[in-house]
Amino acid sequence: MSILAKQRGLSALALAAVLGLGPAPAVLAQEKVSTVVNTMQIFSSLDPAKVTDYTGYMAVVNMYDGLTTVAPSGEIVPHLAKSWEISEDGLTYTFHLRDDVTFQDGSALSAADAVWSIQRLIKINKGPSNLLVDLIDPANVTAPDATTVEIKLNRPFSPFLASTPILLVLNQKLVEANAAAEDALGEAYVGEHSVGSGPYALVSYNRSADMVIERNPDYFLGWDKGTPIDEVRFVQTSDDATVRALAEKGELGLSSHGLGNDTFESIGNMPGYKLLQTRTAGGFQIKLNTKVYPTDDVHVRRAIAYATDYETIQQIIYPGVPMHGPLSDTFETAFNTEIPTGVYDLEKAKEELALSKYAGEDITLVNSYVASLAFEQEVALLMQANLEQIGITLDIRPEPWNRIVELASNPDTTPASTQVNVSPSYPSPDAMFFNQYHSKASGTWWSMEWLQDPEIDALIDQSRAQTDPAEINATYKELQQSIYDLQPAVWAVAPMRRYAANACLQGYEFVPMQSWDLNFWNFTWECPSN
After folding, report:
1. Tell me, what's the pLDDT at 77?
2. Domain Solute-binding protein family: where (predicted)?
3. Other C-beta atoms lying within 10 Å of the C-beta of residue 398
4. Tens-place pLDDT, residues 383-408
5. What is the pLDDT of residue 30?
6. Cβ atoms < 10 Å from Cβ of 204
7. For residues 251 and 339, what is the distance between their CA atoms, to the nearest angstrom?
8. Contacts of 240 (CB under 8 A, 6+ apart)
9. Count of alpha carbons within 13 Å of 61, Cβ hemisphere only?
10. pTM of this prediction?
11. 40 by DSSP, 3-state: which?
12. How far apart are CA 216 and CA 104, in angstroms?
């Protein structure tokens, strides 16, 4: 939800009343551009060492800076580090930092802060740390001087550079000043405060409802691209009617990407609004828990895949293009073109079911999805109707997102099938393979398949140890085929990433890394003259 109060004449007090955020400074009505953004899910943590989902990454990409960042092309480009070198053996990465970066409290950012932040990430061992644990010993992250960070890996790791945008830097002194004896890494404080150098600083945070960030005027990259957005107000709701009503009042600046088709079309047709639409590097899938009844049988999993009406999902419910297994074709050099797209064939579904150990039994399949997401409800109802025709009863159980995350921590509590959107958390095929299918990554919403297959683990490890791009891509293609053969998910659609946006919001570009496209430093507020 987005307004330019000065142009629209809506007072800050009225906006606050509409959103339930409390009074806002009157100056907003005269001077500030205030943009309110709808999110589907709560911000479960603001700690860069703990985030795992799109809202968490949306928060940290605005409040923190990494050693590098990602261009829309997927290329890793300089950010805090202006340059870097990699040793011939591929084990030592040396980053040369800028010397003009300050934290939001005005103190200078140094290599020591970066070293401490990376060590902290490894020690906390949550969120994105699964990339680094066992790969980097904290003692092997050092600062030879105030602008140099040296990282020595325990072994070659081909996706390491692609992962460096998530090496976000925290203000060590500020965190330690607010840490406690029983919380030496300041997890409680960082989880509810902004302690970075990013373009926006935290104003307020209500975990279950909203978050407000404001522009950092001293941001090291400056604000010279146009009219900047001074304040961003994130409001959590997955109710389409609420979002539609906000648009009708002229208060919606940017929607979530999980609205129903009709809602997108309705808002896009309203005066003063537009639809943003791009391809993505991920996909919408139905994850199948390979450790519980009845999806512990590969023939049941294949039957579910054949009973999926891909065309209806891709053309009507959640528009996008077909998927060829577990990797998006946007990763062109790594993509296995021999893997077919999903086929809707109820007769083949029955044949597969007849081959399963549950043949002849009454089968009930639990299906969970994020409650209140209209398109996921539609997918569930479509699947229910189709599966009934092959003898499977679909037990639909919508859950709030935080409950799905909780259930995913154990194979026995993970639903037999769960609908999720998955996109890379760093711009490499490894982000799709390791996070979902490697045994070491088990226990998160990413890995609700609980695949834990030694052959798959070995192939992922092999790709990570290789240094020749051609060899890495060959392994990735073999991985795709091996995963496809096990059918741990229904790869339903590579959806178009869509947002309903105020016509004044400019600068959006898709970035192939989770929520990096929602760094509001890249946006400006320029209203069309007509």
Report:
1. 97
2. 75-442
3. 17
4. 999 999 999 999 999 999 889 999 99
5. 46
6. 12
7. 45
8. 259, 260, 262, 263, 374
9. 25
10. 0.82
11. coil
12. 7
